[in-house]
Amino acid sequence: MLQSKSFARKTKQGKVVKVVREHYLRDDIFCGASICKVCDSSVARLSSSASAILIVDTNVVLNQIDLLENQAFNDVVVLSVVLEEVKNKNLSVYNRVRALCSNSLRKFFVFSNEHHKDTYVKAMVGESPNDRNDRGARISNFLYQLLSKDFGKSLPLDVNCFIMPKAHWQSAFLFSVESYVKSLGQPDLLDLLVHPTSEDLGMEEVEDLRPAKRRVIYSEHKPMSEITSGLHRGIYHQGKLRVNRYNPFEAYVGSESIGDEIIIYGRDNMNRAFDGDIVAVELLPQDQWHEGKSLSIADDEDEENADVHLVPSSADDAPRNMDLVQSSAEDVKPISCRPSGHVVGIIKRNWHSNCGSLEPMPMPAGNGGVAHALFVSKDRRIPKIRIQTRQLGNLLGKRIIVAVDSWDRSSRYPSGHYVVLIENDIDSRPFSSQVLACLPPLPWFVSSEDLANPNRNDLRHMRVFSVDPPGCKDIDDALHCTALPNGNFEVGVHIADVTNFVHPGTPLDDEATQRGTSVYLVERRIDMLPKPLTEDICSLRSDVERLAFSVIWVHASLFLTISTRYTKSVIKSCAALSYVEAQARMDDSRLMDPLTTDLRNMNTLAKIMRLRRIERGALTLASAEVKFQIDTETHDPLDIGMYQIREANQMVEEFMLAANVSVAEKILKYFPLCSLLRRHPSPNKEMLEPLLRTAAAVGLNLDVSSSKALADSLDRAVGDDPYFNKLIRILVTRCMTQAVYFCSGDLSPPEFLHYGLAAPLYTHFTSPIRRYADVIVHRLLAAALGIYKLPQLFQDRPQLSSIADNLNYRHRNAQMASRASVELHTLIYFRKRPADTEARIVKIRSNGFIVFVPKYGIEGPVYLTTRGEKGGGQWLVDEEHQKVRKMDGSISFSVLQAVRIHLEVVEPQPNQPKLQLTLI
């Protein structure tokens, strides 16, 4: 059946044209229910044992996505018109819903109501697209007959009971989200409910104790029409809000319209904006701009004592009550007035789930045992968030995840809801029986069929070896380097062939898709795949035959690539070396055995490759990676120190980078629109500004016009201090953007650049045991070689983009979990071992400075005086030159200066220990 759809569209020239499109309607689109007597049950997605089928509308999906992702919700119908509207309103939520609908372990079904002749809704004269979609969501009699005839009732969820007129429903079919969740008999699910802003009144009564004291705290946000007009007229300025890591009352908005950063002082001027929000800012009158003022380091108690109108930058408002004053014009050269402003509107929110802990509020539990609490994020840039929970006793003292719902003008804190009790949203649950059923039986051996496969080369005769951290069991890469008779070298990178065991669409693949990455903590590993795969079947252990995916080059002695080939293979590693063992072999001139010779040849080639990369503009950066020595019995840390990088590490890294680049070129050639690549965006001016200011303060001129110019500047940044160059490189690392995965069809080729590697193309291929991105790339490469057909997923670019977004999210969370593990073990170590050590000042503030401790890889604030201290002396701060000194000139400190500090663990609040750094 053919229908015509017409709509008006405005052209770039401003003309309004009528567009008419053909719209085909069918009568063979099925409802997805397995016991339906009308539809073909062979294509059913909904379970036959369902007691109810849930039909969700747009508001439910947008507001209650955390609920829908809970395992308690299954047999859910999502209308195609709802999915489209969600996509237009919130792409992040859309991607999460699509992930649910494509997950074979969840019973979510998309019903194409737009293309069924009995459910298609024509637009009425003068009706907006959203109003038409709302009518389309009120499903016609057809879907009701299918779903209610056999199940007795179908329950449409909604954020409010009355969004959809009851005239379209039998009253027995209409449920609110809250009433349905209550019917499930799982009180903990009620904590996931998102309540409308209008329901905030009860929380305000908790905060202010008396409803009559409700007051407007923040300015009303301007509507988008006014913001757009103001931006065009130059009244407002758009940019991303960046909150100071050490002072949540200080923020900056980089504005291209004025070519400078706009400083936002205090919570009232931030006007409910979060770090990362795209905001519209109005400049304050110039007499309110700040001249020569440096903000303080905020202490833990400042949040409690500060009103939203606190401006902690001035001496009068210094949050630690310190006796600090700003330098006068006679003392130091003043900083010119810096533009200051206030947020007038939010253009794009950056709300996401946050990890932290709860503080109970001093009020009795409400109805139904509901308690009120303040959530304190581990990230100090996030304000406290109010939540209601029925599980307060269980959640106190634990790490939880909380999502933000709203922030009312009359509320000091934003409102949110508890999501999960898993730190950094890391899934550490045991693998399900369905997942484990996908594994081959143990013991596993390479079969005769594997060896006879024409797509798999037998490379067992090659001298293959691996080089990894000590104790590594999930070995996913190995190498070989063979000197050829003509003086050239054949070099191979062999990667565990994980996709031979992880097949698309299986429960094992779905689980790996969701987990995204393995998580490496100080004393444990949370695997993306079950241990039989990671430590046995796929692990390229020594002296056992294993399946691999190999990239093999033939190189001339100066690393001129003569040829590159890709092949599935069978290998047998002759040695599984640690970095220390490999380095010892290369350094021992007495050893001349074939394996050591291969290592030395490979290291020579790696040095040439590394030099070539640096010449192209690749950055050599540094990080504060920490290594612990753990007691095998108590699991407590015995020692802590910076991780040492050896030539053996760099050798392996160089060939992994080369393999990733080669594979990126191959897959993009064959699949230009659906390749999964990794990009590293260039840092913008605002990100580099703190680095340039610090460098200038120590007389260092860094050229940041390109990665090559920056790399050359870093090479020249040397001095008498042997640690100076490494410290500068650490500071540069912190100014970089985050590298991310993306679908090649979503961006243009110039945006593919990996800034840090100075590579126009890059991907991840070399770690499929621990990264799902590499699994996807293995499938792309196999399809490019004609070994397998490309899975159906790659025809769905939105779904591939959704997977890339999830991989980025999981990668960031894994990094945060790893850092949290390091922080925890650092606290455990110093709790019994207070220490004095050397630190370097990396940032000057009005009431102290931020230091980095090279020996332990620790960074933290050092205060010049303690809270309430009398007679501590007055300090002069020169922010431009990054110096601070006492009025009498007896003591002075400058950025990058070495200082002695004392490290000890204190507990200012119960169950919240922290590492305190004190100046000696």
UniProtKB/TrEMBL annotation:
Belongs to the RNR ribonuclease family. This is Uncharacterized protein. It comes from Tetracentron sinense (Spur-leaf). CDD domains: PIN_Rrp44-like. Residues 52-155 form the PIN domain. The keyword rRNA-binding does not apply. Pfam families: OB_Dis3, PIN_4, RNB, Rrp44_CSD1, Rrp44_S1. The lineage of its organism: Eukaryota, Viridiplantae, Streptophyta, Embryophyta, Tracheophyta. Keywords: Cytoplasm, Exonuclease, Exosome, Hydrolase, Magnesium, Nuclease, Nucleus, RNA-binding, rRNA processing. PANTHER family: EXOSOME COMPLEX EXONUCLEASE RRP44 (PTHR23355:SF35), RIBONUCLEASE (PTHR23355). Its cofactor is Mg(2+). Gene3D superfamilies: 2.40.50.690, 2.40.50.700, 5'-nuclease (3.40.50.1010), Nucleic acid-binding proteins (2.40.50.140). One of its GO terms (biological process) is rRNA catabolic process. It is found in: Cytoplasm; Nucleus. GO terms for cellular component: cytoplasmic exosome (RNase complex); nuclear exosome (RNase complex).
